[in-house]
Amino acid sequence: MKFLYLTNSRLPGEKAHAIQIMKTCAALAADVSVKIVHPRRFNRPWLLSVVDLQKFYKLPRDVKRKSVYSLDLFNIVPKLRFGKSFAYKFVFAVQTITYHIALFPLLLNSSADVYYTRDSLTAALLIILRKKNTSTVIYESHRFASSRLGLSLGSWLVNKLDGIVVLTNLLAMRYLELGMSEKRIAVVPDAADVHDFDRCSKLEARNYLSIDENIFVVMYVGHMYKWKGVDTLVEAATQLTHNEQVWFVGGTPEELPRIEQLTNKFDATNVHLAGYVPYRHISTYMAAADVLVIPNSGDSDVSRFYTSPIKLFEYMAAKRPIIASNLPSLREIITHGETALLVEPDDSHSLAIAIQRLRLDPDLSSRLVDSATSLVNEYTWSSRSRHILEFVTSIVNLSDD
Fold first, then answer.
1. 217 in Cβ contact with 243 (< 8 Å)
2. How far is Cα 311 from Cα 292, in angstroms, rounded to an integer?
3. Calpha distance 25→139 (Å, rounded)
4. Cβ contact 192:314 at 8 Å
5. How far, in Å, CA of 109 to CA of 267, rounded?
6. At 302, is the secondary structure helix, strand, or coil?
7. What is the pLDDT of residues 11-53, one digit of tens each?
8. Residue 385 to residue 125: CA distance in whole angstroms
9. N or C: which end of the chain has fewer CB within 10 A?
10. Neighbouring-strand partners of residue 244
11. Closest Cα to residue 74, out of 85, 93, 88, 86?
């Protein structure tokens, strides 16, 4: 079986979706032929030297890639004195349009068995250009449109797509409500490479990162978007003691100044901003932590209903106790008091209390870790790949009937 995975993403990239794409495709490549098609784009300065994506993303095998033209003007926007918000939207539109124009000749001359994408516009283009009855089009959706145009596109897609892969049952319900057949929807959460974590001790990790072994370290790994709940964690830091540190690992130069301002506003002197960390070092940072946190906000539909954070599975694989927001999307995987402590979203006081509870109750921490370690073995990239391939096979069988 030949897979063509199309994504309008920078590869390599600093965001979680790049990790998810590379990990998923590398796992699929164990059983089928996979090629990723992505745009040629200007990259971040710290990623320009990356040439070996297999090594960079710690993949079990290399994945074939093909880049196509797109007009990327993003580097111009930071130099503007005003109107940056509109400019970002404009240059994104230009880049997206030119990328899809460049896909035309490639798709007209391709002969894949399965076309797979997590971009709705690409899914629409695949449907329009595909040769009838000779290929299968699968769309992996990570959110549900809220705009009128987005809903119209979604309604059109559910009547044309061969199948949709979603991350949560809640997102599956949205597509069922739009009229998608239940047989053509598969819920496949994200995953982790379990063997990449828990490979060094806490002491070894702290020696490497120069962290005092007597400090109680609470850690968040990921981007600093507001819907990720990082503001709540900064505020919670002010309610902790002087020898309890909160580490933020990740973020881009555009995001970090806001968090710096927030820490200054709250006078959160026990907050440490590590900044962007290459993926291969993430497991070392997690090993240095005492507690790992997912403080997602309850003010966003993506956060409440649709997300399946890679960090959740990696936290479990890291064998550290987890505190997470009590949200429906996260409750599809973890259970309060069994695999994590769940706290009221956007409530810094509840978060601070949970942190101190775990510090004072090592037995509870151990029980949570043991249960989460057992659970995460069900959520590997190879198992995710297997579920996707089983779903694709079922779709092909439906088409043959």
1. no
2. 9
3. 14
4. yes
5. 59
6. helix
7. 999 999 999 999 999 999 999 999 999 999 998 888 999 999 9
8. 24
9. C
10. 216
11. 88
User: If DSSP codes are grouped into helix, strand and coil, which group holds residue 76?
Assistant: helix
283 alpha-carbon distance from chain centroid? 16
Domain span(s) for CATH 3.40.50.2000 in the chain: 2-191+380-400, 194-376
d(Cα 223, Cα 349) in Å, to the nearest integer? 22
277 forms beta bridges with: none
Q: Is 377 left (phi over 0), alpha (psi -120 to 50) or beta?
A: alpha
**For 198-229, what is each residue's pLDDT tens digit?**
889 999 999 999 999 999 999 999 999 999 99
Residues in a beta bridge with 340: 336
**Bridge partners of residue 31, in order along the sequence:** none
Topology, domain 2-191+380-400: Rossmann fold (3.40.50)
| Residue 390 · residue 33 · CB < 8 Å | no
pLDDT digits (tens, 9 = 90+) for 324-354: 999 999 999 999 999 999 999 999 999 999 9
Rounded Cα–Cα distance for residues 156 and 151 (Å)? 9
Half-sphere exposure of 220 (CA within 13 A, CB side): 32
pTM above 0.70, yes or no: yes
Helices (H) and strands (E) in the chain, counts: 16, 13
Q: Which CATH entry fits the domain spanning 194-376: 3.90.870.10, 3.10.180.10, 3.40.250.10, 3.40.50.2000?
A: 3.40.50.2000
Q: What are the two backbone dihedrals, phi and then psi, of residue 373, each rounded to the nearest 5 degrees? A: -60, -40
341, β-bridge pairs: 323
